Amino acid sequence: MTENWKTRTRLVHAGSRRSGWGELSEAIFLTQGFVYDSAEAAEARFVQAGPDEYIYARYGNPTVRMFEERIATMEGAEDAFATASGMAAVSGALTAMLRAGDHVVAARALFGSCLYVLEEVLTRYGVEVSFVDGTDLAQWRAAIRPDTKAVFFETVANPTLEVIDIPAVARLAHDVGATVVVDNVFATPVFSRALELGADVVVYSSTKHIDGQGRTLGGVILGSCEFIRKTVEPYMKHTGGAMSPFTAWVQLKGLETLDLRVRAQAASALALAEALQGHPKLERVVYPGHPSHPQHALAMRDIGSGGTVVALDIAGGQAGAFRFLNGLEIVLISNNLGDAKSIVTHPATTTHQRLSDEHKASMGITPGLVRLSLGIEDTDDLIDDVTQALNAV
C-alpha cells in the first residue's frame, strides 16, 4: 500500500506499529530486553527471530524498527539499520564489509571524521585507501582497480559543496564488482535519488535534517536486505552501534515534518545565494542550486535542488571570516547543520582543523570559507542578517 503514497504521507505513516492500546503517536519501547513465554520460545527466537520478534535493544526494538522502515520507504531502499550517530553509520557500513587487503577508492573532499575513518582507522587494519578528486572521472577511472572492494564519497561534499556524478562513478565501480557507498547528508532524503542513480548503500547522519531540531544524535545505513541483514546487522549488533529507542522516537517525529522543513530551507538557501552574488566582501558564493556553481547542471539533474547549505568565502581570510561570524545576530555559530535554526561554521578551525594547510587547500577549504546551513526562519530576515554581518568585514 505504501508504494502508492506520496512522500509526505510516507513520512507520517510508513512503518507504523500500534500496540493493543491503539495509541495515535508512536510508542516508545524503552526496554533493553524482552520476555519469552518459555525456554523453548527463547531458544527458537535466538535461532531465528521473526519480523516482529525482538531479543535485545542492541539487536532491534519496535520503536527503532518503525524508524528504519519509515526512512527505508522514503529512500526507496529494501531495508535499513539505525545507528547511534552518523559516524556510526559511516564507519559501520564500511567496516562491516571490509577486511585486511581490501582496496577502497574515496573522494578527497569529505567531512573531517570521515577522513579519519578512511585514513587512520581502516588503514590501521590493513585496508588500502586511494583518494581522488571526486569531480574528476579520469581520476576515478585511474584509481579503481579490478580488486577494488568499495568506493565512498559524499554526494555533495562537506563543506565545499562539490557534486559527484553518481551514475558515472557507479558504472566504473560496478564494472569491477565494487560496492558504491555514499554519504547523502547534504542531498537530504527529500531530494535524494542516490539508490536510483546507482549507489548500493546510502548513509545519513540523522542528527541533521531528520531530527532537524538539535536534540539527538543518530544515523542510518540503507541498502538491500542482503547487505543490511547479512553484512551490517551482525557487525553492528555485536559492536554496539545501534540507535536507542528514545532517539528513534524523537526522529520519527522529525520525519513527519522533514519534507516541509527541507524544502523551506532549500528555498532560503537559493534566495540567499542569489542575493549575495557579486557582493564586494565575498571572494565567492558556492551553492549547487545557483547557475554559477561548476556542477550546477549535474546537481539539477541528479538532485533537483541545491540543498540547504551555502558556502561563502569571505574576503580577508580567517580574520574576515571571524568578523563575519561575530557580526551575525540570528545565525548561530555551531558545528551542526540541517537544523531548524540557521547555523554557521568555520571549517578550517573546527570540523577540519586537524588537517594540514596543504590538505585543506587541496579540498578547497580556504581560511575565509564558512559553511552556512539555512534554517526555517524568515528568508528576508536571514538575508538581512548575513548582509549586515558582511558589512562588518
Architecture overview:
The protein has 393 residues and is α/β, with parallel strands linked by helices. It has two domains: 2-254, Type I PLP-dependent aspartate aminotransferase-like (Major domain) (Aspartate Aminotransferase, domain 2, 3-Layer(aba) Sandwich), CATH 3.40.640.10; 259-390, Aspartate Aminotransferase, domain 1 (Alpha-Beta Complex), CATH 3.90.1150. The chain is built from 16 helices and twelve strands. Helix 12 (245-276) crosses helix 16 (379-390). The N and C termini lie far apart (55 Å).
Task: Note the main attributes of this structure.
393 residues; alpha/beta; Aspartate Aminotransferase, domain 2; Aspartate Aminotransferase, domain 1; 2 domains; 5-stranded mixed beta sheet; 16 helices; 42% helix
Radius of gyration (CA) equals 21 Å
Our count of domains comes out at 2
Say what oligomer this is.
single chain
Strand element count: 12
- Helix and strand composition category: alpha/beta
CATH homologous superfamily (4th level) name of the largest domain: Type I PLP-dependent aspartate aminotransferase-like (Major domain)
What is the approximate shape? globular
